[in-house]
Amino acid sequence: RSEKLDTFRTMFDLRKQARQLENELDLKLVSFSKLCTSYSSSRDGRRGDSSSDTTPLLNNSTQDRMFETMSVEIEQLLAKLTGVNDKMAEYTSTPAVTSLNAALMHTLQRHRDILQDYTHEFHKTKANFLAIREREDLLGSVRKDIETYKSGSGVNNRRTELFLKEHEHLRNSDRLMDDTISIAMATKENMTSQRGLLKSIQSRVNTLANRFPAINNLIQRINLRKRRDSLILGGVIGICTVLLLLYAFH
Q1: How many domains does the chain have?
Q2: Would 112 be classed as within a structural domain?
């Protein structure tokens, strides 16, 4: 009988501790949620007013420290509540409380459900806070880069413009060089083809001349006549020129 009373007292103390821890967790989670909401609001305020960057930065730094502190405290409370629930589960399975096992199991299940709800709420709020902080830190870094770029945009824009013009000139020069090389290559190929064609014609003429001696003799006579005509024409032009000079000087 005394063992049974001791077990009931222990169960009563454990339930009391569980309720106390649950109340503390409830208050902590409410404060934790408000902290995350105020953190997001302060970030939104900083985006809306770029002239007040100093104060929100300090507030957000303080909120970050508070977030870490409260996260540790809530995790400790959750661990304590888990330990209390485990102890209640051990006493529930003892033979001394077998007659009240159903009622105790119902109470234990209720405390476990509360612990599960608090744990889920804590992790959800923490994940939302970390996501907001990561997103805002990224946006802040982008805004800082944009402001840095704007502060030196005068000189940078001029340099960028000069670089772009120089780059365009180089591209035009490269294009002209490519066009010139393409024309030269096409001309070379054309001259090579013409040279081959002339060689082919000459070889055919030589072949015909070798095959038909009469044609070869005729070609030679034609060439001799052309040379003779050229000599006669040159002589006539020379004589006429001499006569004109003599007439001019006399």
Answers
A1: 1
A2: yes
Q: Does 221 reside within a domain?
A: no
* Higher-scoring residue by pLDDT: 218, 17: 17
Residue 85 token pair: 């629930």
Is the whole model's pTM more than 0.85, yes or no? no
Q: pLDDT higher for 19 or 180? A: 19
Structural contact between residues 126 and 39, judged by C-beta atoms closer than 8 angstroms: no
Residue 235 lies in a domain: no
